[in-house]
Amino acid sequence: MSHLAAPPIAATETRRPGSAERRAMILAVAHELFLDQGFEGTSMSEVAARLGGSKGTLYAYFDSKEALFEALITDNCARMSAQLFEGPEDTGLEQRLLAIARGYIRLVTSDMAVRMIQILAAEARRRPELGRMFYEAGPAVALDRLSAIVAAAIADGTLDADDPRLAAETLLSLARGKLHLKRMLGQIPEPDEATIDACARRAVAQFLRLCRPIAP
């Protein structure tokens, strides 16, 4: 995205001391339940019971299961997108792209991300807005930030590409490679760090071959 910003969370939060911590606890419990049991298999009663409180307290923060799930999507996406770009910005372009590629591969092949996408894919059949919310709050935000890095490199002559966004999409596609599909299909376990590093290096090398300026 410059796409839309992450949609507002459809929840009502109390304004009392400790409400932020309580909200974080609710989301942590909901995260575990949704991943273990899916959207349909999780109830607000079960979330409240796991928290050791009443449904009334839970509904003071989130007025429906849908609102709770939406909050979980936007919070997780914001955190994961930020993690991809948390490294130092003063390294060379290749090292920065390598760090981003490693983080991206690690993220999209993680058990948490794979299970969440599988849940979203199933639920989005009934509620396609959840799929849009996930994309706009997570992947598109990361793509925006990577596009900006690529655009700056094009501007200073380090890279040569007509469309920074398309170039950024190309790098992410190269990074996903075959690992992501195999993970989504349950064919392989989470890759180890050596595999992630090898895939990231290969993706960045291929990307730079495509986008490095041709010497006169």
What can you see in these coordinates?
- This protein is mostly helical.
- The protein has a domain at 72-211: Tetracycline Repressor, domain 2, CATH 1.10.357.10.
- The protein contains eleven helices and no strands.
- Helix 4 runs parallel beside helix 7, helix 5 crosses helix 11 (193-211) and helix 9 (164-176) runs antiparallel to helix 11 (193-211).
- The two termini are 35 Å apart.
Chain-wise SSE layout:
Blueprint: H1 19-37, H2 44-51, H3 55-61, H4 65-84, H5 93-108, H6 111-123, H7 128-137, H8 139-155, H9 164-176, H10 179-184, H11 193-211
Q: Main attributes?
A:
216 residues; mainly alpha; Tetracycline Repressor, domain 2; 11 helices; 69% helix; disordered N terminus
Quick rundown:
This protein is an all-alpha fold. Helix content is 69%, strand content 0%.
Corresponding CATH architecture of one domain: Orthogonal Bundle
Mean pLDDT: 86
Please trace the helix and strand order, writing H or E for each element.
HHHHHHHHHHH
Helical fraction equals 55-70%
